[in-house]
Model the fold of this input.
Amino acid sequence: MNKVTIDNVVLTLSHPLKNAKEWIGLHEVLRQLLACWLIVDKNDLPLTPRITGYPGVGKTTLAIAAAKKRNQDIYILQCTSDTRPEDLLVTPVLSEKGQIAYHASPLLTAVITGGVAILDEGNRMSEKSWASLAGLFDYRRTVESVIAGITVTAHAEFRAAVTMNEDDSTFEIPDYIMSRLQPGIEVGFPNREDEMQILSYNLPFCGEEVLMMCVDFLQRAHDLDLPYSIRDGINAIRYTLKQKKDRPDTDTEHLFENAIKQILGKEALDLDSLAAKQKATGKYYSDDTIPGMNLGDFFFPDDDQLNPDKPKEP
Ligand SMILES: Nc1ncnc2c1ncn2[C@@H]1O[C@H](COP(=O)(O)OP(=O)(O)OP(=O)(O)O)[C@@H](O)[C@H]1O
Ligand SMILES: [Mg+2]
Done:
């Protein structure tokens, strides 16, 4: 294991990611991300962008592929609501000889060695944890570990990006942190040609017929602004092919439809009605969706005319 000594404290470094994937199609977002990490003058600093978009559209893959393009080591830190400030930097571990050993997080390892850090799903992390990184993402490029008692200034090659998912289990990131995570790069859905290429890159063993079926399905969903992604497509294809292997005589289209139903729910087989429902209620609707409670729902029955949060008719 690699170790470094900073201010007489020995730190064990994290391992970089192996097997980084390429980014296929959607060239503009890759170009934007690489531009953020460029330095145009000796007084210039890199930007730390936030990468947003529907679940499964490729946010994490984009950051990984961009780091790979720069030939830098990649360190991913998965953020959760339990991530504490020190988890972001240094974790003390009891070593065999009963002494305390300090382990540098993937983020701190990137800071020290000049790698690329990806803070994945950053808005699942609380304000308190974010606060400890404020100095790292501005002109100071410095971070302090209270536990190890060290202050580290980032290597000149250190770069970072934060991916963000918008769902109910995320936190609002405070403005002073948001202002350091700029610009926002939004990954959208790919067009037909790119989607075909992305799927066949990820599933090189899949024949044209099933790929086309999947692209047709996803493109129709994108046109209707339904949140079905490449990841859903990859899962549906995988399941279809596995079933086909087991039962080669079964109609492939039937197997694909079944896969969609089992992965995305039966409402995904009728995209038009699903889109109409979504439009009327203003939110994505699935049979598995648990109805949300708004303030009005605590005081009035769901369908009461006086309930200001009464669901709108489809
Ligand atoms: N442009 C692309 N090139 C190559 N692979 C892609 C591309 N877009 C999506 N993928 C593939 O789609 C899958 C989902 O991508 P990824 O995990 O990066 O999505 P995400 O937006 O980070 O999802 P989540 O919101 O759940 O974190 C991966 O298997 C990835 O390889
Ligand atoms: Mg991701």
In short: Residues 21, 23-26, 53, 55-61, 163, 165, 198, 201-202, 230-231, 234 surround adenosine-5'-triphosphate (ligand 1) (CB under 6 Å). The longest strand covers residues 74-78.
